[in-house]
Write a structure and sequence with these properties.
The chain is of the alpha/beta class. Helices cover about 35% and strands about 15% of the residues. Strands 1-3-2-4-6-5 form a 6-stranded mixed β-sheet, sandwiched between helices. The longest helix is centred in the middle third of the chain and has 17 residues, at about 100-115.
Length: about 210
């Protein structure tokens, strides 16, 4: 259902694909498109507050060419990264069911398998962490023990390093559970693990 501030816009209203560079070394995975973000614009983390927070950090960390993500034609370009979600449609109440998750997981599995240079997968939130582990298991990659999600958690699964980060939801960012510095630190860790050179902002602060 539309909200008044977007009443004049035509909503995408169908599965939202991942996007980014084909040779990305870092895959960033969220839970699902926001009802009035990705579900409206047709691009995950685009046109909502979570995306504002995420892409500001991605820009500071050198993963995108601009700090905002507002529409599919806004000129945004990912650099060494790919962005996707476990669920491809906006779930009612932002709470995907296990059936919805399992129906969408093959899309994430194919993206992981297709990204031939992929080294690092960043899970934004515990549900994304769980979905990624399920997708990797389907691809034949199993950790020795089931790793627990946490902000800054890090584990090796097959050829990939899986990192955890609190989801950039308003519930987390408005309360200070996730700060810009915390997210920037995780993004820098992604660059280090992926073998990417430091961003210009990192070099300027050293």
């Amino acid at each position: 259902m539309k909200v008044s501030r977007f009443a004049d816009q035509v909503y995408w209203g169908r599965p939202v694909p991942g996007y980014g560079e084909a040779d990305a070394r870092v895959l960033i995975v969220g839970l699902a498109p926001a009802a009035h973000g990705g579900n409206r614009t047709g691009r995950i983390f685009t046109g909502d507050r979570s995306g504002d927070f995420l892409f500001a950090s991605l820009h500071r960390s050198g993963f995108v060419n601009q700090p905002t993500s507002v529409s599919r034609d806004d000129g945004l370009r990912l650099i060494g990264a790919y962005v996707a979600a476990v669920n491809r449609c906006a779930p009612p109440g932002n709470k995907p069911t296990p059936l919805e998750r399992d129906t969408c997981l093959p899309f994430l599995e194919r993206e992981i398998a297709t990204l031939g240079e992929l080294r690092v997968i960043l899970a934004l939130g515990a549900l994304a962490w769980d979905g990624i582990l399920r997708a990797l298991r389907s691809l034949g990659h199993r950790p020795a023990t089931r790793p627990r999600f946490g902000h800054g958690a890090e584990t090796t699964v097959g050829p990939y390093t899986l990192l955890g980060c609190f989801h950039p939801s308003q519930q987390n960012t408005f309360t200070g559970k996730l700060t810009p510095q915390m997210m920037d630190d995780v993004m820098r860790r992604c660059r280090d693990l992926a073998g990417l050179s430091p961003s210009s902002s990192d070099r300027g602060s050293s």
